[in-house]
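User: Fold this one for me? It's NADP-dependent 3-hydroxy acid dehydrogenase YdfG.
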Amino acid sequence: MKKLVIITGASSGIGKCLATQFSKKGHPTLLLSRSLDKMEDLNLPNSLCKSVDVTDLEKMREAIKEAEEKYGKVDLLINCAGLMLLGHPEVQAFEEWSNMIDVNIKGILTGIHIVLADMKSRNEGTIINISSIAGRKTFDNHSVYCGTKFAVHAITENIRKEVADSNVRVIVIAPGVVDTPLLSHTTNEEIKDNYDEWKKTIESGLDPLQISNCIEFAYSQPQDVCIREIVIAKTKQLD
Ligand code: NDP
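Assistant: Here's what I get for NADP-dependent 3-hydroxy acid dehydrogenase YdfG.
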């Protein structure tokens, strides 16, 4: 059997696509999100599905321990879980931007905290964090979301350098718009309508499969080759 892959945010969008793709390649998977039924519905072989909030360190630790006992050490952690609740911070509810900071920033660090020391001691392993083009540029109504994704870029690059000597790869993927339910969680209808209107100028977002293919490509390089960052968007997307 191939090595264990952990995917957070596996119940929807990009994470769901990653789960299917890595499973098809023969990897056992640990699928994490809060929606157990959606992950179980994928009905993947050699797959452990756990309802876990990525900000809950102890639940994450328990799930990873159980998966490693079943399938061996984790070789790839893909931090995909994320939230995009657009708005202006002086208007938007505290819970919205606070939650986004927790999930998008703390939620990548919990998994990293649990698996990284062991990867270093084994001199192998890969961590892939999904950031965004909003982790490189700013956009209206995106201040906190951009802040969280700039943080994902910074955390990734910093850890990459810290663990490079141990042969562990840390990679960031920065997609432009992808067709997933991500925007649907924004509560401000006007912002959603304007976003949808703008999206028409690029016809549609990327297919989640195109992100999944990039991730598989980066992971499939030899362990001593690190594709540090992939930025991918529709050709017609200007920013
Ligand atoms: P979706 O909304 O389709 O998926 C988000 C996933 O994150 C779901 O599986 C959701 O599961 C999970 N999630 C959210 N909160 C938590 C939590 N507290 N604990 C565990 N899981 C959680 O969006 P995408 O697939 O588009 O998003 C995936 C990543 O890609 C995100 O990090 C996003 O920022 C990034 N991205 C997306 C772009 C796009 O245009 N779609 C562009 C650039 C980056 P559940 O609710 O079941 O817990």
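One thing worth pointing out: The chain has a mean pLDDT of 98.
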